[in-house]
Structures are given as C-alpha cells and as structure tokens.
Write a structure and sequence with these properties.
With about 270 residues, this protein is of the alpha+beta class. About 40% of the residues lie in helices and about 15% in strands. The protein contains six helices and eight strands, in the order ββαββββαββαααα.
C-alpha cells in the first residue's frame, strides 16, 4: 500500500553562526520571491538532500556554513532528520525532529550512491519510506527493465521555474534514452503496477524462441546426418567395385608376367 512523507523544514547550520532555515507547509509549497533571493538555491539544497550528487552552488551568504539538515515526516508515522555536509559525502539520519538531533544516539549512516544490492543507501531508505523498493520499470522496446531509484521520482515533486513555464510536460525530461522508462514511471505512480512482470513474459518469449531455434537445428542435424551417411554408403559401394576391378587387373597382369617369364626362360 502507498505511504508518503512530507518536507517539514530545511536548515543550514554551523555551530558558530545563526541557522538559516525555511519551514514548509503541508502538501504543496510554491516558492515565489524576487530575483536573487535564494529560490534556486533552496531547490538545489532540497535536491541535494534527496539523493543528488551535485553540491548546492556556492553563494556569498553560504560562507561559514558547513552542513544541511532536512526534516521529513512520514504521514501518520515517524519524523526523521537527514544531515549532510555541504561539501558532499554520505548522510546521517536521525529518528527525531530537527531540533533534537544533538540529543539522540539513534543515528543511521547512509551512502549517497545507489546500489541495487545495498540497503544502507539514501535511495533505498527514502523508497522504503514510501513502500517503493524492488520496483521495475521497462526502459526500451526490447523489454529490458531497470530498478526504480529515488532519483527517478524525486524530480517529479521538486520542480523549478524553468520547467514550469515550458510548453512540454514536466513528467518527461525529453531525453530520448529515458522516454520509455519515464512514461512507465508515471503509469506506475497512477496504477501502482510496475513492470516486474515483464521479466516473466520476456523469459517465456525467449524460451519459446529458443525452442523454435532448437527444433530447426535438430531438423538440420537430422538432414545432414542422413545425407552424410547416405553419401558415405554410396562412396563405400563405389570404392568396393573399384577395388574389385583393380584386384582383377592385378591378377591378369600377374598371369601375363608369369607367361612372359616362362618364355624368357625357355629362350
């Protein structure tokens, strides 16, 4: 079943400077301020805390700050605070609100790099909060699939102003290589049916094709075996007759040789 979480607060901190933060309202938030007022920077920070490998751009106001914290709340459940150094690297996750991180020992270390076989990654952690782990998306017309990562879906709920004003749909990045998987991601989000079943269908098709090829190969082998054995038999019969004729000729020559020897000795 579906689960989801919301963003409560984003905070940039250092122990010797006053915290800078933005508190979000529940559900939809629209950041609309004049130019040069950190709008794009806030979006960069949110993306950075939700599995992005790109650091927020360096701005004058950021000088002296060292790390970012992001408080998230799973609806009808727990509150977590994600912490990450502004220079990059892995995550620390606290099972508490953003004001209480220094007073808890319940800390989870998470790798920022997604890995299909590792559960201690930020992608696995966030997907798990939403019951979205182990989901597959078809990526091309050959029925190949990829595993759903948090990066696939994060861009759908943090949208910048350039994307909003485009004529094209924000659901797609309009990169041809990703078009199929992005359309199937949207299908999954509205139907809750991923493409895991495709593997079974694909294997059934592969097996069927292989059986057909195997039948064809067996027929070819039988045909070649018959032709080869028949040809071999014909060759053997021909060689027997030829050998018989040679032996007969040798006998006749021996007789002539003996007769010539007798005449030679006589004379």
């Amino acid at each position: 079943m579906w689960k989801w979480y919301i963003l409560n607060e984003l905070r940039i901190s250092w122990e010797w400077l006053k915290d800078s933060s933005i508190v979000f309202k529940k559900w939809l938030n629209v950041i609309s301020w004049p130019s040069d007022t950190w709008k794009s920077f806030i979006l960069e920070c949110i993306n950075y805390m939700l599995w992005s490998s790109s650091n927020p751009k360096s701005i004058t106001e950021l000088e002296g700050y060292e790390y970012i914290r992001l408080e998230i709340e799973v609806i009808n459940s727990k509150i977590y605070t994600l912490k990450r150094d502004l220079k990059g690297g892995d995550y620390e996750v606290y099972e508490t609100n953003i004001n209480n991180t220094e007073n808890t020992s319940n800390i989870i270390k998470l790798d920022w790099k997604h890995n299909t076989w590792k559960e201690n990654t930020i992608s696995f952690f966030l997907l798990n909060l939403c019951n979205l782990n182990n989901k597959k998306l078809r990526k091309n017309e050959r029925w190949d699939t990829i595993e759903l990562t948090y990066r696939n879906i994060s861009r759908l709920f943090v949208i910048d102003e350039n994307t909003i004003i485009k004529d094209s749909s924000p659901l797609l990045s309009w990169q041809q290589i990703h078009e199929t998987s992005e359309k199937n991601l949207f299908k999954f989000l509205i139907t809750w049916e991923d493409d895991s079943y495709i593997k079974k269908i694909a294997w059934a098709t592969v097996i069927s094709n292989r059986k057909w090829k195997l039948d064809m190969l067996n027929k070819m082998i039988k045909k070649l075996w018959y032709e080869t054995n028949y040809w071999s038999k014909e060759v053997k019969e021909d060689k027997k007759d030829e050998l018989k004729n040679i032996n007969y000729n040798i006998e006749e020559l021996n007789k002539k040789h003996d007769s010539l020897n007798e005449n030679f000795n006589k004379y």
